[in-house]
Amino acid sequence: MKQFLIFTVKTLLLLFLLLVVLDFLYTTVYLQSSNRGKIEYVYNSEARNYDVVILGSSRANNHFVAPLFEEKGLKTFNYGMSGGHLFEAALLLKLMVARKYNIKNVILEADLNLSNAHRDDGVSARFMPYIYDSKIIKDHFSGEEDFKSLYYIPFYRYVAFDSKIGLRELYKTVTKEPTAYLAHLGYYPLKKKKGNMKNDIRALKPLQNKYYEEIKQICAANNIHFIAVMTPMCTNTKGLDYFEKVKQIYPEIHNYESIVEEDQYFSSCGHMNDEGARKFTAIILNDFFNK
Predict the structure, then answer these.
(1) What is the longest distance spanned by two Cα atoms in the chain?
(2) pLDDT class of 3 with cuts at 50, 70, 90
(3) C-alpha neighbours within 13 Å on the C-beta side of residue 180
(4) How many other C-beta atoms are found inside a 10 Å radius of the C-beta of residue 56?
(5) What radius of gyration do the chain's Cα atoms show?
(6) Out of 37, 69, 103, 170, which residue is the most buried by the measure of CB atoms under 10 Å away?
(7) Contact between 104 and 74 (Cβ < 8 Å)
(8) Domain span holding position 63
(9) How many domains is the chain built from?
């Protein structure tokens, strides 16, 4: 019995040491990466200067054509992340400020993402390699239910989010396989789709969102001009009064939900195609940057 207990303890110690070594190796690789996605592009960077930084979900990523801003002489990058929530947008802005980014304007897509104050596991997983290295990331995740497991168990986060930061992604990071996330200054154009589009957002309710408030506060504290906008939806959407409810909570958010309406400008009911995005971006440039 004694020998069995000794064997068990030795096995557990070896397993723990293996997890620590694997954690160190994975983290070291990700700390050297800056070309796979927007999070590591910010995290492993030094101070940058921007006239415009764009934040939000896919409705920012697919709707704001960053090269059109550049054509107007505005140094711009679209940091919108498909699937992302305001949880991730706020954390990304915190990291930019910590890296001494000089930002004149932040455009935040704040519409459907106001309806929740949770993280998106797929997007937030990309912050996980840096949770030991960054107090900002640690503190941002500290209120999450699984924080203790993610932070105190070595290598657990790489297993829990294997599809995003596991062995396959590690290999692509080591081989420096490029992605489309950083192309077009972060803007991701969508193609046209045919047929009638329908959507139903009646179940969504806008919240007084803590991460929206955080972004506002960060901008105010760092003399960044804050522009919050709601972006277009197709006219077949049920529950479009959602956008009016947003205005009741946050009257400062500019409502552009109906500024582009024809189906020919949409790839899906909630996402414009490249033609629609260019039309929308031109309106934003005229309304906010014409001077």
Answers:
(1) 81
(2) confident
(3) 7
(4) 29
(5) 21
(6) 69
(7) no
(8) 2-289
(9) 1
